Amino acid sequence: MVKHQEDSQLLAAAIFLLFSLSIIAGLFFREPWLWMDEVLSYVLISDPSPTHLNQAVVSNMDANPPLFPNLYWLVGHMISLKPIFFRSFSVILFTSTLALFFWYTTRLIGNAVTNFVLISAMVYLTYQNFEHATQIRSYALLLPISYVYFIVLQQLINRPTDTWLLALHTVIGLLMAFCHNYGLFYLAASGAFFGVLLIWSKEKSYLPIFATYALIGLVWLVVWYPSFTIQSDAGKPHSWIPLPTVKSFFTGVGDLIPSVSDKLEWQSSFWWLAILRVSLVIGLFVYLAVPKLKLGFDAMRRDKAFQFFLLSGSIYLGILVIALVISFTYTSVFLRRYMWPSQLLIMFELVYAYYQFVGERRVMPQFARLLPIYAFVLGGAIFYKVWKMQTSFQSRILTYLPQLSAQYPVFVERADYFLPIWFHNQHPNVSFLLDWRNADRPGNIKSATVDYKILKSLKDNYNVSGIIPVDRFNATNYPHFYVVDEQAVYQIEDYIKSGQVKVISQRPVSIAGVRLLECSFVSQDSLPAGSAKHLISFNK
Fold first, then answer.
1. Which residues have C-beta within 8 Å of that of residue 237, sequence separation ≥ 6?
2. Which of 16, 24, 493, 518 has a beta carbon 3.0–4.6 Å from 504's, enabling a disulfide?
3. pLDDT digit string (tens) for 10-44?
4. Nearest-CA neighbor of 404 among 514, 521, 519, 522?
5. pLDDT band at 427 (very low <50, low <70, confident <90, very high)
6. Which of 431, 417, 522, 529 is nearest to 474 (CA)?
């Protein structure tokens, strides 16, 4: 038993070091671009004033609670404000969670060497891990908080009246709720799980747990709900997230599951492979859970590995149901990255299923001696994967900007382009037009209204000069300019059709759905009568 614990602790440290060193090394070789959301996060956490930071958080700039920016602000101002440091800090949070996951899983089931191979391989085969672990976003903080919360939940199954556990559940639950809005979904799913346990067991000892849920909800309502309503205005009149379809549901959920065919599934003709993986995971849960549930409640309480398996599957499926219900009844919130903590639950389900089918066979000493070679090869593969990962910012547009005259502004039509180009200073006059009338135009891309509100808040809070109010967009201020015109966004087309703006030339761009236009305002004297009238009324 002592040897098992020593192996578990040693390999937990090995997982931490293996993934930390490999991922952080890969970051130094990867393209440095921050994507849209990371830029917003960095602006907040690099703010010299924590007071001003929290004022900016309660605006349309961000749609999440204040725990993440405040923690990163504190760490950054104590150590470093370089983006690579913040990304590395996110990696450390992620790899610490992996080490804790390995250690706790090995306490519940299996042996250390086999679990090391199983878990490290599954982490490597889940693309989302490397996507979110390397970003300056709240997901890297939500992950460890969520996993500690899952551990506390399991402890409460057998000790529902333990005062220390109830207090810990309240504190960790509040941290989840104040880290990310999806934390509320995980709280709701776990509350439903304990509701089922209460009905199944008929034990009133579970009632104190619901008191902690009520306390968490009350604190959130009093402390954060007024700010939440302000933040949620960014999602009006509609969410930027499309309603889930059969395809987007299975591909989104499938991204939480380890896969050797993720690149293949990105091709439209192979997305059905995600259906197979999701069906397999859900099918395994039902197949393994039902027989043991028939043994009764007391048998479940004695089997701690099955407890966590049951808890994992219930919360994982509960999150999917909650996200779908809210998406189709209120506003679309079904997004794979919001559900990243569920990936840990799925991994445990797969580890548990492995031992149910294979059994806890003793690891041969010869195999254990090969572990350093396996770790070395895996570390190289992790480094290469992070190095070659494409960033969320579509940086190909940057190859065309040096061809343009620096004296003329370049208007872009989405925050996805504006924020990274502005932050990385890739063009001195990159601009974004705050045009609500066209952003809210029927048929326009849904993210147009969200982009408008985010960038308006950024200008209001941080006075970014490249964000241009619509009343300043005229021949006097911008007689000559460029536009990165996207087919999906309706904006400059309105000015061209009305005769206010004319296209001087169109530069060739090999990006689907994108045109690079050189434009100028038409002087008011040369406009047709109707167009001049339109221009006058518009500028008012």
1. 440, 449
2. 518
3. 999 999 999 999 999 999 999 889 999 999 999 99
4. 519
5. confident
6. 522
Q: Is 368 exposed, middle or buried (0-12, 13-18, 19+ CB in 10 A)?
A: middle
CA-nearest of 485, 486, 59, 445 to 239 is: 445
The predicted-structure confidence for 351-367, as pLDDT tens digits, reads as follows 999 999 988 766 656 67
Cβ neighbourhood burial of 467 (10 Å; 0-12, 13-18, 19+): buried
What is the rounded distance in angstroms from the CA atom of residue 466 to the CA atom of residue 325? Answer: 39
Task: Please provide the DSSP assignment of 401-441 as one string.
Answer: GGGS-TTS-EEESSHHHHHHHHHTTSSTTEEEEE-HHHHTS
Nearest CA-CA partner of 241 in 308, 331, 321: 331
Packing angle between helix 272-293 and helix 304-329, nearest 10 degrees? 130
Q: Which of 286, 282, 284 is nearest to 254 (CA)?
A: 282
Return the higher-pLDDT residue of 535 and 483.
Answer: 483
**Is the full-model pTM beyond 0.85?**
yes
Whether 458 contacts 59, CB under 8 Å: no
- Residues 6 or more apart whose CB falls under 8 angstroms from that of 449 comprise 236, 237, 238, 240, 436, 439, 440
CA 508 vs CA 144, 233, 495, 514: distances in Å: 47, 38, 21, 9
Instruction: Kindly report the average pLDDT of the chain as a whole number.
Output: 90
Can you tell me the distance from the alpha carbon of 254 to that of 310, in angstroms, rounded to the nearest whole number? 20
The residues near 15 (Cβ < 8 Å, ≥ 6 apart) are 95, 98, 99, 102, 116, 119, 120
Across 209-272, where does the E strand assignment appear?
Answer: none
